[in-house]
């Protein structure tokens, strides 16, 4: 699986002239407040550390833009993150725009609904890489993509209210350097 993934990411990175974004979808999350200590380092509750050890280096190496994850029945948005640390270069003051991020952006979008309901935290940690967590609203995720802008919105299923929205922007300087 790792050999296949590396070849696929390598080919995608080489094809950025035609498809500028690399978006990974995976079930188990690498980063989640459900599976980390107070220091934000993943532990192996929900296999987070195993997932991180298996995939993070490849995601950084091939400049993955966005990682969509599930399994945990919450919504969690992270800053661009690498090696357990938020990489804040290019992050706007309102945390809603990431311009030319230097690490993947991770989102857990596990709030579509199911018989288990949403996960309830007793005393969740707040690691430096976490922008926000929502475990109160069932929702859908809408992704809008152009060659230079990727926007993700978390929309409450019952009301249509947008509870979170952010954009990843690739400036022309970044586009030119990848071509």
TrEMBL record:
Domain of life of the source: Eukaryota
Organism from which the protein derives: Phytophthora fragariae
Gene Ontology MF term list: hydrolase activity
Annotated SUPFAM superfamilies: Metallo-dependent phosphatases
Annotated protein name in UniProt: Calcineurin-like phosphoesterase domain-containing protein
Gene3D superfamilies the UniProt entry points to: 3.60.21.10
InterPro entries: Calcineurin-like_PHP (IPR004843), Metallo-depent_PP-like (IPR029052), PAPs_C (IPR025733)
Residues covered by the Purple acid phosphatase C-terminal domain: 103-165
